[in-house]
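FAQ: What does the model actually see?

It sees only this:
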Amino acid sequence: MTLTQLKQRSLLGLKELGKEEIESILERAAYWEQHPVKVHQDMQGKFAANMFFENSTRTRFSFEVAEKRLGAEVINFAAAASSVAKGESIYDTVRTLESMGIDVGIIRLKPNGVLAELASSIKVPLINAGDGNNEHPTQALLDLYTMRKQFGSLNGLNVSIVGDILHSRVARSNLYALRKFGANVSFCAPSNMQATELDAPYVSIDEAMKADVVMMLRVQLERHESGMLSSAESYREQFGLTVERAQTLAKHAIIMHPAPINRNVEIDDELVEHPQSRIFPQMENGVPIRMAVIERALS
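And it is asked to produce this:
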């Protein structure tokens, strides 16, 4: 396989991916969602390695369900239980799995920049399952899929993303992808959690509530220790989606969240399964999206 073919089958991010390619993934996900057969044999005899060098529950399980629904053999790798904990480099670990004959690698990493280096050296397609604070392409794809199911078209849609933009790979991937489809994206964040390099306007929390889609990001409570976050209570008061704020949402608007959720911090408990919430449908949509992405890598 040539480097160009490998690059076309990998999914490292959405910033460089064209609108037509994203559209084809969304269309294929719709096919898999509607397919009446739960387990297929399309990828029988193929080996998929879930290489998570950073902890994850939902993303890893979603990928594993997608892989098994396609009939692939699944290898789960967790850094804490591997030679990485003994000092082996990420590169050596991925090369080892490649040498053992895997056909695709799903990879989540904490450090920025490592994924791009791996992709230039590893000779199997790689799928980004979360790359530092760089990108999280499959999360954004399932978000777009959720919005498109709700509104039909993304063109002209107003999307507010609220929370720690500075450290959010979800915000970045959504911004890159949504703009390709003509959506208007605005951010809302505390001043010390804004990403000035991203070309999107910042609005107040009251203004953010006027959007068609209000996407709340997970508050990283560990940032208490660094002083970036004064307290969970003050964050909720200033930037949380409270019951009172939800009453100002337009009737057609939807609430989204990439999860995991800090209930009663970024979003009040009563709103997680509110009629306007699409939080659990987002998770559900992750499986057909990841089936489409894996199929694309292995085709």
